[in-house]
Amino acid sequence: PTLCSMAAPDHCSRILTYTGHKNSKVRWQPQQTENLRENFLFATGSWDSKNNSVVLWEYSSKSPVTTDSLREPELLSKIPVSSDVMDMYFLDKDRLLVCTADGSLSVIRCWIRSKTLETAFTMESLHQTKGGQTCPCTCVAVCSFSPSNVFTGGEDGRISVLAIEKQTILCHIGSDDSTTVTALTSISQSELLAASSSGQLKLWDLRDKPIRPARIVVFSRQRVTTQCLDRHPTQPHLIVAGCDDGSICFWDLRHEKQPINLIEAHYSEVWEARFHPQHPNYLFTCSQDGSLWQWNLSSSKVHLDSSMTTRDNTFDWLVSASKLDVSNILSTSTNMSVNSFDIQSSHMLAVTDQEALYVIPNLIM
Question: Which of 19, 221, 238, 360 suits a disulfide with 232, CB 3.0-4.6 Å?
Answer without folding.
Answer: 238
